[in-house]
Amino acid sequence: MAKQIVRYSTEDQENQENKKGLHRSWSHLPPELLCLVSSYLLAGDFTTFRVICKSWRSSTSLPRPAVSTLTDSPWSLSPCLMSVGSHKCTFFHPGYQKHDACEIDIPELLDARIRFSKYGWLLLTGYGYDNFSVFFFNPFTKEKVELPKYTNRESFVTMSFSSPPTSSDCFVIGICGWDDFGFIKRGEKRWTSHTIINRPEFTPSSYCNPILHKGLCNCLGENGGLGVFDPNDNPSNWIIYHNDKIPLIQEKLDSVHRSYLVESDEGKLLAIFMVEEGDTKTPIHVFELPKLQVNKNMLKPRKIVCRIVRSLGNRILYISLGGSFLGPVVPRGLGNQIYLPIVQDQKNIYYSLSTGKYHFIFDDYSAKNIHRLEQPMNCCWIQGRPKLTLNKDFEW
Asked: How far is the C-alpha of 64 from the C-alpha of 191, rounded, in Å?
């Protein structure tokens, strides 16, 4: 019996030591391993990681592993803010601070202007008033698709496309000024130009990308309305819809700072208006547009019933001049927010529909307006996709 007691006591002591050893092993993991683990965490999960213990928190201050290509990044398939500078292209994820941004040399983009982004592709034009080059570029695969040059009057101001350039039904549209539109489809060798008759009650916003939605071209107007036409039906006139909720911001339309048109994951369109700091109650207004009944002979503007969006649920809006989209939340604690193309003091700025304020990620600071901060012109939100390589015989 004494031997059994000694044996059980010894085994119990060994188990206790093993448990202690296991506890020590978690708190004393190699800093390099902790740094690698934390590099895969975003926002809420990253914050939780930091409060586990002192050693885990200190590991997050170490330099993260260098990224040689964008596809090597652990968040390459997550939405990130891309900006094109004079020497490098920078990719910044909102869940990380600025010193963790990925900077890559992409010579093909250094003299180009981002016009639109979707499906992991960029649509770009050359810099300069007389530079009419247009091309697609995938920054994740470094593949480029040249389009015919557009030489009508002037270069494009805003652009959009319907599907990836690899799709047989890819359709590209560009706007020069307020009335000159250019169209080109996959397989065509030249652009088709159309002039849309000006309507005094509607002027397209020069800062908002058109959206090709269900075969129609949709443009937000400077007065908050919506202009629609069918690009496949030799368009010559706008079909105009008035937003019935516009009286809510009618007095502030002159102070609209930016407007965006976004296709939701439910197949509807969202209109977003950022109001200048004169609006102290609601800096950003979001509306869901209804399904439109389009009649090309409709000459009188029609009123549409829009729904005010007060919550995005478990989704995030990413808005920028180079393209916007609505995406599901991957990290916890980020839903019902609108991410802006602004990084200030190494922090990304977002707007919360819950609080009605702007916030800095990783910071308790909040504000009612941010209009003293300028949005970069040559940037966009972009989201990578699983790598697909162009066929070597691919032709536009």
From this structure: 46
Report which listed range, 59-73, 135-149, 216-230, 281-295, is most confident. Answer: 135-149
Please give the C-alpha separations between residue 332 and each of 80, 95, 187, 270, 362, in angstroms, as whole numbers. Answer: 17, 11, 44, 24, 14
Q: Round to whole Å and give the CA distance between 106 and 287.
A: 37
Q: Taking phi first (over 0 means left), then psi (-120 to 50 degrees means alpha), and beta for anything else, what does residue 62 get?
A: beta
DSSP string, 156-207: -SEEEESS-TTSTT-EEEEEETTTEEEEEETT-SS-EEEEPBPBTTB-B-TT
Mean pLDDT of all residues in 324-336: 79
Distances in Å between the alpha carbon of 355 and those of 284, 371, 394? Answer: 12, 18, 49
**Treating both helix axes as pointing N-terminal to C-terminal, what angle do 31-38 and 43-50 enclose, rounded to 10 degrees?**
150
CA angle (339 as vertex; 352, 276 as ends), nearest 5 = 70
Distance between CA 191 and CA 292 in Å, rounded?
28
Q: What is the per-residue DSSP string for 303-372?
A: EE-PEE-----SEEEE--TT--EEEE--STT--SEEEEEEEETTEEEEEETTTTEEEETTS--EES--TT
Residue extent(s) of CATH 2.120.10 domains in the chain = 70-382
Q: Does domain 70-382 have CATH number 1.10.3470?
A: no
118/320 Cα distance (integer angstroms): 12
Q: How far is CA 178 from the centre of its chain?
A: 25
Single-letter residue type at 167: S
pTM: 0.80
